[in-house]
Amino acid sequence: MGKTGYFTHRDCWKHDMGMGHPECPQRLDAIEDRLLLTGVADALERGEVPLATLPQITRAHSVAHMEHLEALNDRLVADEPAGGPSYAQLDPDTALTRFTMLAARRAAGAAIAATDAVISGALDNAFCAVRPPGHHACHDKAMGFCFFNNVAVGVRHAIEAHGLERVAIVDFDVHHGNGTEDIFSNDPRVLMVGIFQHPFYPYSGTDHPASNMLNLPVPAYTKGMDVRELIEACWMPRLEAFRPQMVFVSAGFDAHRDDDLGQLRLNESDFAWITERIRDVARRHAQGRIVSMLEGGYNLDALAASVEAHVRVLADL
Questions:
Q1: In this predicted structure, what is the pLDDT of residue 230?
Q2: CA 272, CA 121: separation in Å to the nearest integer?
Q3: CA-based nearest residue to 279, from 149, 126, 110
């Protein structure tokens, strides 16, 4: 059994976009409860989560993007004593609150800390149970529940701080990781492979993607075995040829058949299988180095069970 890290922070609970919003703090409660109840938590090494710094975040995002979000945050804080608004609406689904920047910097900080620990050899791999998620956050735009692109921050840290030359990103969220594609399109140091429901939000990923992007759009109601066949036939040859020195995972579990935010038909065994294939590539080419970041997953029971399945594979349980 190898060492699998588990990175989370209570600040990630503080970001709350309101009653009934699917991207809620209870998502992390469900994961924590499940890992504790099943005993999986006992096999994990909890890591400290710092606040990501401005230089770390702006490896993946523009300074203007960071400054815009900080200015909105400062305005909310300044207006609070006068009874000002409790949030700033960025799009119909995404609201910045007085605690969003704190949570987002912790989430990005988890990517940094997990990357450092895995590359140093202190951990074999890591899972980061953080929010807000990140894979819709573009170089200069927040959208789709996402403010900073956590995986992108981690990948750029691996490349620029640690000197890695080939890093793979695997995204199995039900939604296309348009933000990650925006940041890494045509970067030869990065190969991104993704599978997602289409047509579906954010209605991207099908029009002439860059050569370092392998997108597999699938229709609603696609079943797990069909997804497995596509991954085996399409992802695996590209990953093997690329020989990544590290693998990052945008681990979205909203493709689960019980999740109402999507219409794919995966279950826990499918997520475990996908994780096994990622692990196999990492062991052959990347010294087993994987950092997995939580993205979607909004049915709390399905999310918790899927994360358990994912983490069991990472930890060889």
A1: 98
A2: 24
A3: 126
Structure tokens at 266: 């995966």
Count CA within 13 A, CB hemisphere, residue 86. 5
Put simply, whether the predicted model's pTM sits higher than 0.90 gets the answer yes
Task: Compute the distance between CA of residue 292 and CA of residue 115 in angstroms, rounded to an integer.
Answer: 10
Strand-pair category, 167-171 with 246-251: parallel
Amino acid at 218: V
Which amino acid makes up residue 250?
Answer: S
Predicted pLDDT at 265:
98
pLDDT at 32: 98
277 to 34, 159, 272: CA distances (angstroms): 24, 23, 9
For the chain, residues with pLDDT lower than 70 are 1-2
Considering the candidates 9, 15, 65, 136, report the single residue annotated as catalytic: 136
d(CA 32, CA 175): 24
- pLDDT number for residue 280: 98
Could you give the CA distance from residue 213 to residue 215 in angstroms, rounded to a whole number?
6
To the query of whether residue 157 is one of the catalytic residues in this protein, the response is: no
Ordered DSSP codes for 234-250? IIHHHHHHH--SEEEEE
